[in-house]
């Protein structure tokens, strides 16, 4: 339980300057508790409906890779009776794929309720756009530190914590952010900035 380098992503250099823009109430809580607040991704979606979502290209990739004829034919050809909790034997392709989609959607929603983020902004200087984005006219504070200091602060964490750079994308474009196969929830793969 502590900060853990992510196996698929290179770390951000320790000397990288990062900022967190927070209102006075959150700053007072930070000082009082000496702890960082991590918000669940599904709660963030109340503020930004695209937070933790897949782009059209990513949905297309998943559809082809996991719900296309190739996977079903592979399962049948190799005599695989079950795929996880999905029974394959004796069922039509349509029924198997439909159940796999339902289970994939439930798993995705589950990850959204189990993934917590603490957003920091990578920039050598203070950023007026971030003041407006995070504070929306409220009085607040910009906390400036480095990635190395944040890693040190997370050393006492009770949970495994990754620091991942994020990429903001235009969801209207046919953009595929990450073609690596891994088991991390989509919210950790895409959306610079930095998620802790």
Explain what this protein looks like in three dimensions.
The protein is of the alpha+beta class and 196 residues long. Helix content is 37%, strand content 16%. The chain contains 7 helices and 9 strands, in the order βαβαααββαββαβαββ. It has helices spanning 24-33, 41-44, 56-67, 69-77, 93-114, 128-135, 147-154, and strands spanning 17-23, 39-40, 82-83, 86-87, 116-117, 119-122, 140-146, 164-166, 193-195. The chain has a 5-stranded antiparallel beta sheet. It has a two-stranded antiparallel sheet with strand order 2-5. The protein has a two-stranded antiparallel sheet with strand order 3-4. Helix 3 packs parallel to helix 4. The protein is elongated, with a radius of gyration of 20 Å. Residues 177-196 have low confidence and may be disordered.
Major β-sheet profile:
5 strands, antiparallel
- Rg (CA only): 20 Å
Mean pLDDT: 80
The oligomeric status of these chains comes to: single chain
Count of helical regions: 7
- Proportion of strand residues: 15-25%
Poorly predicted regions are 177-196
| String of helices and strands | EHEHHHEEHEEHEHEE
Total beta strands: 9
Write the layout of secondary structure elements.
Blueprint lengths: L16 E7 H10 L5 E2 H4 L11 H12 L1 H9 L4 E2 L2 E2 L5 H22 L1 E2 L1 E4 L5 H8 L4 E7 H8 L9 E3 L26 E3 L1
Antiparallel strand pairs: 1-6, 1-7, 2-5, 3-4, 6-9, 8-9
Helix pairs in contact: 3-4
Output the keywords:
alpha+beta, two-stranded antiparallel ribbon, 7 helices, 9 strands, disordered C terminus
